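Hi team, as promised in this morning's meeting, here are the two structures we talked about. I've kept the exact order from the run log so nobody has to guess. The first one is mostly here for context; it's the second one we should focus on when we meet again. Sequence first, then the predicted structure tokens.
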Amino acid sequence: MTKRKPIRVVVLGGGTAGWMSAASVAKLLPGIASVELVESEDIGIVGVGEATLPHIRSFVERLGINEAAFMKATHATYKLGIDFRDFGKIGESYIHPFGSFGEEVAGVPFHHYWLQLQQQGLADDIGTYSMGVMAALGDKFRPPAGDASLGSTYGYAYQFDATLFGPFMRDFATGLGVTRTEGRVTDVKRSGTSGDVETLVLEDGREVHGDLFIDCSGFRSLMLGGALDMEWEDWAHWLPCDRAAAMPCKHVTDEIEPYTRATAMPAGWRWRIPLQHRVGNGYVYASEFLSDDEACAAIKEAAEGEQLADPRVLRFKAGRRKASWSHNVIGVGLSSGFLEPLESTSIYLAQMAITYLLELFPLDGTINPRDRDEFNRLVDMEYDRVRDFLILHYHATTRDDSPFWDHVRTMEVPDSLKSKMELWRDTGRIEKYSEGLFYDASWIAVYVGQGVLPQNHDPRAALPDPQGIKRALGNLQGAIKQEVAAMPGHREFLLSHTGRLADVI
């Protein structure tokens, strides 16, 4: 039997999405595909400090990457959730944890019991019934337990320096046999019959040939948006923030918070991402309501700690391509779509596309149109659901203190989000789905945290004695406090896991 030649996979663009794609194909499809990545050192990457979601852990584990080595190389910290401030009302805050609130009892989700007591003034803040929230507020961390105990009811992600993550993945990928080609692409040649991309032409005249192309060229989207002219679906009318002023600072205390902070601002919001060696800060804003100079001045005034560099302005637009896989080109990362970093979804969306590509990969070299359609369906579904969740943070507010917040509070939202909000307000239920991102606890965190409480809830929660439920919830709070008290501090755990923390660079 003649051995089949490996499918030639060409990745255009380095950075996070490109090297994640190249490493994944090389590691998980050995012998099936050869991988060549084309990038130019002259083209920078959009990397200001990345906060991630727990799904990144499965990516690290699946590729066989040592967590401690990865964290040391990227100056990473642990992340238990996101602290949202001033979104529902000025002066109010809540944490969206990577974990649950309480436990289901007799088939009734915990939050229905909490709502029953809350109506009677017998419940504390819902965050006090979450291990993830209380550990974050205490600046504590340890990996969740591997059993069904209370210590297993939370998850974690990473916060790392994106300018270091790309090179780390590059070294890992080239160690797997990925070929790196330096050069700027000046032309994309397509087949005259099928329309497939066949060749990338570099500035010096060299040509890179392939069978399957992964476009990780960022917002330029040279293949998917350029050569194939795939239409962009603009979501600026729902997500008007289109710029960010980013600026690093020194830590102001010895402790390192195990969470990302998002604080609402007059024309958007600002992030605070604590890494080992510094703190990333940025103001995500809508240029319709704020100038670049005003944004830079605002982040300089609001950021904590000594400034390490001047703010730099990044431009972006919210939306996605009408299709992320066209002909033999798959868009991953910014070339496929972009949703602002309010819930740290950028790396997840790239990882998600890579995962679906591996599942639907043309193992015999022939692309099945049904597989391509399924890929596009899954990717579109993910983007649409994340979009709705992000819009919720803006729309579910009572703020009327600036033109920006007036706009997002009163704007028409997608029908898909409108139906989710109506279901919650009428019944206290969260729309169920088996695929995608952000399940019940995530939506509950934002709804309750921003003051959107339902008119009704599961009537079965009213059957037990309210005082009995209150005692049970009090016992849960006590158990959580005991568990959190036994945890090491975040900085202490980082030192024990990664060794000496990175210095300011």
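And here is the second protein, the one for discussion:
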Amino acid sequence: MRLLTALLLLLALLPGLAAAETLRVGTWKTAQTIQPFFYQEFLPAPLSAEVFAFTNPVDQKTALLAGSLDLAGTTLAHAIHSAVLGQPVVLVAALCHKCSALVVGRDSPIRAIADLRGRRVGYAPGTMHEILLRETLHRAGLDAERDLALVRVDFFDMGTALARGSIDGFLSGEPLPSLAVARGYGRILAYPYFDESVGTINGGLLVTRATIANHPDRVQALVTAHARATESLIRDRDRWLDRAVDFGTPRPVLEQAATNMELGWRMDDTFVRQLKQLGERMQRLGLIDRQPDYDQLVDRRFVDHASRELR
């Protein structure tokens, strides 16, 4: 009788012990930031993921700091800026690489970066794309302030501005460059990647220091799910792009854009070195006034553990 009572008590407790726990994740609805939409497949029970779509990294970070998210996507430039401000954010995984292009009008006489002298180029201030644009201009011997006009344009207005002739070019993220080509008003002038400096790094995943301190198991589960989702989509390109079509970009455009996208999760020595070089360029541009503590900003323990699990 005592044994039966004990078993009944244990059975009563089990639902509570295995209660589902929902982890809240922020990302964008783009092909290059798609992995969180697949986390549910790779999270161990009783964990589950609820994904919230945002349009910019600032809102994601704000929700993260407010405790409304457990994990948030970010651009690496924004992660650096947040750390300089003293905000308690930590990069725990890469999210994507590449994804940027410099576009000019399809019939434009501009054939080289140097031909942008005297032209109007659209850009979004304070973004990875501004940094890449200025780096590209600098390497071509152009002074961004004296030799051409940089015009503030919202990302989603860049294509319209180029088609109307309000600007002569723009640098932005996919799929906007590929859309400009597909719709017949744009041509890719250059891909702004320089291996010896910033390279192709672009986006990452943030958590707060408090989450790492209080719930490292949650962070590890999310990072491992992110790694598994990324590797799965890299292996199955059709599944990746078929899901991305749901975000509103036609499949032929995604096929073109995918040649300029890389899904990511690892943060190796090269990643950290390029992140620091990104910070140096941001300071040189006046976007930040000092460098962050990169040892506080980057925590590679979780991707290292995920790497061992995926072997």
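Starting points for discussion:
The chain has two domains: 21-98+198-310, 104-190.
The chain is about 45% helix and 20% strand.
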